[in-house]
Amino acid sequence: MIAFISLNIFLGLYILYNTSKKATLMSNLQVERWIQQNPRPSRLLGVGILALAYGLLISLKAIGVSSLIYFFQLMTIGSLIIVLTPLKIINYKLVLGLFFLAILIEILN
Q: For residue 49, which of 4, 12, 68, 90 is within the disulfide window of CB 3.0 to 4.6 Å?
């Protein structure tokens, strides 16, 4: 479940990154182009996904631990998005591969 929450945090932050005017934007996928062309609904969607991830995390653990985990993930994933996206390292294949690897590790533990 933590892997799913981490994926939601990534998606929310990536959507918010694509609505930024200061960022170096790529539009490889149709979804990315839609996000960049419609910033207002995209921002609402990104913030909604982040709120959903925080709510799911609170339902799994206590509020103090959930807040700490959430903000650590927010800072880490946000920094990686800002650094790696302009270098064109982040793509959907990498994200899905890391997600399935995280689920595999989560199931085996």
A: 12
Encode pLDDT of 72-109 as tens digits. 999 999 999 999 988 888 888 999 999 999 999 999 98
Judge contact between 91 and 108, C-beta under 8 A: no
In degrees and rounded to multiples of 5, residue 26 shows phi and psi of -115, 150
pLDDT at 92: 87
What does R_g of the chain's alpha carbons equal in angstroms? 14
Quickly count: other Cβ atoms within 10 Å of residue 35's Cβ.
23
- Ramachandran bin of 61, using left for φ above 0, alpha for ψ from -120 to 50, beta for the remaining angles: beta
For helices 39-60 and 63-84, the axis angle rounded to 10 degrees is 140
- How far is Cα 100 from Cα 102, in angstroms, rounded to an integer? 5
Flag whether the pTM goes above 0.85: yes
